[in-house]
Amino acid sequence: MRNKVYIVLFISIVFITSSCENNIEVIRNMGKEKDLPQVSADNIEILYSDSARVKIQIISPSIVRYNLPNKMYTEFSKGLTVNQFDTAHNIEATITAQHALYRDQEKLWKAWGNVLARNHKTGEELSTEELFWDQEKGIIYSTKFSRISNADGVFYDDGGFEAKEDMSQWHMIGIKGSVNIKDNGNEN
User: Fold this and answer.
1) Which terminal Cβ of the chain has fewer Cβ within 10 Å, N or C?
2) Is 25 part of a structural domain of the chain?
3) What would the 3-class secondary structure string for the chain be?
4) Domain interval for residue 67
């Protein structure tokens, strides 16, 4: 009887130890941080100010923030609206998009999906499928089809555009469009 108990015990120990798996990759990854967001929130409003004056307001239905060493970015997966204010706290410009991403290390914004930028003071309007804002260089640009309308007409480009971040000094690639010409009354 005692031999049977030892045999059952021996078989149990063999079974238990043989069913364990020591996958070295699994063990190495046990203590590592996962690709989980540090912050996530719904229905947010972010205000950027300078000298106690609100400069920029960002409104979004959803925000997710990742702070991993090689992956520091903020994602606005359900779109956003950005309002820029002048010194009198009037909305100077507005940008809307269906999706946006901000990369901290590059100081680069990327917006895509029905991007619309409007300068309320000049009436200029930009629509494109993708827009970048490089804060370091102080420029906005796109490599996608874009449409710009202003007092001078409507301009289209096939190869993208580049402009100052205040939407001035446009440089368009593959430009097409219609231009409004003012008649100054000369019959010559």
Assistant:
1) C
2) no
3) CHHHHHHHHHHHHHHHHHHCCCCHHHHHHCCCCCCCCCEEEEEEEEEEEECCEEEEEEEEEEEEEEEECCEEEEEECCCEEEEEECCCCCEEEEEEECEEEEECCCCEEEEEEEEEEEECCCCCEEEEEEEEEECCCCEEEECCCEEEEECCEEEEECCCEEEECCCCCCEECCEEEEECCCCCCCCC
4) 37-179
Q: What is the pLDDT of residue 27?
A: 58
Give dist(CA 133, CA 144) in Å, integer. 14
Contact (CB, 8 A) for 127 and 147: yes
**CATH at residue 91:** 2.60.450.10
pLDDT of residue 58: 94
User: pLDDT under 70 in the chain at which residues?
Assistant: 1-34, 175-188
